């Protein structure tokens, strides 16, 4: 019998399995496949959350026309996965057909016992981030990394706001991606591809399609059953779509808490302060949804003009309500009356 059963082999599942095994727990990881296909990034000052041996490519990045105060890092997925591996993890190549707090039933009917974590990814939610990206060969573009460029592809704002995300990959190639940050209904891949082509010219190469909800809420305080983790637990930042760094950051604290039981573990994943931050971030998401394309550019120009501490608090301070509120207040003060009205709307 394992101490811990982790269902799902995405970044959150592997982060947790790895931390638990390093913490001396026997771990079963139920994962139907191997490898991560998505391109994952985090802020360069967050890479220390990754297990030793992980590699990434770090790069300065622009937000609009300005150089961001924080560098950016794109993960070398294979190295992170290899760094997560541990002899204390038994990987079962299967899917869970059912989960309870203490058992996972596989599709074969086999039952695995232990404290069960549901790291099977985001479900539900109605507001989605979508993106269409093309990987172009090394040296084919002189592009510098761009975290967000909201300037319109053809100099003219048409329809819903999208931005360019362009980052170097660990193998030297570059991912050029047109992204719709948050929208309901989601912006389609065809529209995103056309906008990407309008922005950078027609580019040919392997395609990355991104689609996931950004509004999956935290589980209720008194939830029962398998403990959700990662995107399944609402860890995705509602206003950026990020969760990978937070999953790796939280995993060791969870591993340390397992001996104190399920309730204590749930509190580590969603302490009261993180629930408060989540509510503030949802306000940020509501503001984003109310903005026109022109206002998106204006809004993010103001955001990226904020001092680095505010940017860091809003983007990465998952359990820092005071820092998040201070960042939002600073943005409000900097905004013109027209934007303020939208930010203040209940
Ligand atoms: C293309 C893409 C790019 C993204 N880029 C970033 C980024 O740069 N930075 C960032 O922070 N976030 C990014 N995100 C958002 C988010 O952080 C990711 O969705 C991230 O993968 C969530 O990790 P996870 O492990 O919680 O879930 P997932 O990565 O969705 O992993 C869940 C895993 O569980 C498996 N599974 C599902 N059901 C079962 C079952 N019944 N039994 C067993 N296994 C099951 C799935 O096959 C999957 O492998 C991106 C999302 C996408 C889609």
Q: What attributes does this structure have?
A:
five-stranded parallel sheet; alpha/beta; seven-stranded mixed sheet; binds flavin-adenine dinucleotide; 10 helices; Alpha-Beta Plaits; 3 domains; globular; 34% helix; 18 strands; 346 residues; single chain; FAD/NAD(P)-binding domain
Q: What is the helix content?
A: 25-40%
What's the architecture of the largest domain in CATH terms?
3-Layer(bba) Sandwich
Specify Rg, calculated over alpha carbons: 20 Å
Unique ligands: flavin-adenine dinucleotide
- Averaged pLDDT: 95
Task: Report the strand count.
Answer: 18
Biggest β-sheet description: 7 strands, mixed
Shape: globular
Instruction: Please report which band the strand proportion falls in: under 5%, 5-15%, 15-25%, 25-35%, 35-45% or over 45%.
Output: 15-25%
The poorly predicted ranges are none
CATH superfamily of the largest domain: FAD/NAD(P)-binding domain
End-to-end distance, in Å?
50 Å
């Amino acid at each position: 019998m394992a101490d811990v059963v982790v269902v799902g082999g995405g970044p959150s599942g592997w982060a947790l399995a790895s931390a638990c095994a390093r913490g001396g727990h026997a771990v079963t990881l139920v994962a139907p496949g191997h490898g991560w296909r998505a391109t994952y990034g985090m802020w360069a000052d967050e890479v220390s959350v990754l297990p030793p041996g992980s590699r990434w490519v770090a790069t300065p990045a622009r937000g609009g026309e300005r150089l961001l105060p924080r560098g950016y890092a794109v993960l070398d997925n294979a190295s992170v996965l290899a760094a997560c591996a541990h002899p204390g993890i038994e990987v079962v190549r299967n899917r869970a057909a059912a989960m309870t707090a203490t058992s996972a039933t596989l599709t074969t009917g086999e039952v695995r016992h232990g404290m069960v974590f549901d790291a099977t990814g985001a479900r539900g939610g109605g507001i989605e981030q979508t993106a269409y990206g093309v990987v172009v060969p090394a040296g084919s573009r002189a592009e510098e990394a761009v975290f967000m460029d909201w300037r319109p592809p053809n100099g003219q704002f048409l329809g819903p706001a999208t931005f360019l995300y362009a980052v170097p990959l660990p193998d030297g190639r570059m991912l050029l991606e047109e992204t719709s940050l948050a929208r309901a209904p989601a912006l389609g891949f065809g529209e995103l591809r056309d906008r990407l082509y309008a922005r950078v010219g027609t580019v040919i190469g392997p395609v990355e399609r991104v689609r996931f909800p950004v509004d999956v809420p935290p589980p209720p305080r008194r939830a029962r059953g398998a403990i959700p983790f990662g995107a399944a637990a609402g860890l995705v930042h509602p206003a950026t779509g990020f969760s990978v760094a937070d999953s790796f950051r939280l995993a060791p604290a969870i591993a340390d808490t397992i001996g104190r039981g399920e309730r204590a573990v749930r509190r580590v994943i969603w302490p009261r302060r993180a629930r408060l931050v989540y509510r503030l971030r949802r306000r940020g998401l509501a503001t984003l949804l109310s903005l026109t394309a022109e206002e998106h550019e204006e809004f993010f120009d103001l955001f990226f003009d904020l001092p680095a501490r505010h940017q860091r608090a809003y983007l990465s301070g998952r359990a820092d309500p005071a820092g998040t509120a201070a960042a939002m207040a600073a943005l409000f003060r900097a905004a013109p009356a027209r934007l303020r009205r939208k930010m203040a709307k209940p």
